[in-house]
Amino acid sequence: MRGRVFLIGAGPGHKGLLTLRAIECLELAEVVLYDRLVSPEVLACIPETAERIDVGKSARHHRMEQTEIIQRLIQHAEAGRTVARLKGGDPFVFGRGSEEAQALAERGIPFEIVPGVSSAIAGPALAGIPLTHRGISTGFHVVTGHECLDSAGTPWPLLAASNLTLVILMGLGRLETIVEQLIRHGRSATTPAAVIQEATTPRQRVVAGTLSDIAERVRAAAIEPPALIVVGQVVAIRDQLGGLVEAVGTPQVTSRMGGDGW
Ligand code: SAH
């Protein structure tokens, strides 16, 4: 008999941001394949009875290839097991979850998508940055910074010309190039920008500035991945909200925001 697969969004890190459905599915799972982005706090929610497989790194600390991850998912499901595939944030936001779903569909393996709270939404919120705000931003773009050198990829000129909020995932290592692209294509160097490291976890850190100085501030603060970038006038609202925002689940993230950190 064929098993089934739950493609589960683990949320941005804090276990309070797991959905009830995610917890139900983890409780049903016999095997859990998880990513490097899944936080220790969330991993602690996996029942002891389930076998855990870290597909974020292999024995030699190289990441498992996507094809191998898919093969493993299929093998476990075809062996009749209930499989949970746990991914950071939402499984369909840059998580390659859709490729895994395609592979399962091709093999006729039943699966359920369990949406998760994306870091793109939760990260800015917990830093006191609303993605939309009446009179300031009527929407937002969420893009990968991974392709910033590839003109066929992310449309930087279009994003620079837009006055909507910009949320960039996977962009920390290319922050300088991204900033340069945005300014070159017309965004003002005085546009507020922030970088948020390990949002929603006790390790969360926030650095804010403008396009002209954000790269330097991030370097000085030694911000590490995973981190996301927010660009737009909404970042300035943090000055009004920042000091009063309480992070989720105060026992885990207790400090109030202020200055450049928590
Ligand atoms: N599916 C995920 C995104 C996967 S892409 C989601 O919906 O959140 C991986 C990128 O997401 C990282 O490079 C980083 O930019 C961002 N990211 C994920 N979790 C994060 C967190 N807790 N804090 C800050 N950025 C995070």
Describe what you observe in this structure:
This protein is an alpha/beta fold and 262 residues long. It folds into 2 domains: 4-114, Cobalt-precorrin-4 Transmethylase, domain 1 (3-Layer(aba) Sandwich); 119-251, Tetrapyrrole methylase, C-terminal domain (Methyltransferase, Cobalt-precorrin-4 Transmethylase, Domain 2). It has helices at residues 20-28, 40-43, 66-78, 97-107, 119-126, 156-161, 175-184, 214-220, 238-241; strands at 4-9, 31-34, 51-54, 82-87, 111-114, 140-144, 165-169, 192-197, 205-210, 227-231. A 5-stranded parallel sheet has the order 3-2-4-1-5, with helices on both faces. Helix 2 links the parallel strand 2 (31-34) and strand 3 (51-54). The longest helix is centred in the N-terminal third of the chain and has 13 residues, at 66-78. The protein is elongated. Residues 250-262 have low confidence and may be disordered. It binds S-adenosyl-L-homocysteine (SAH). S-adenosyl-L-homocysteine binds at residues 12-13, 37, 87-90, 93-95, 118-120, 123, 169-170, 196, 198-200, 225-228.
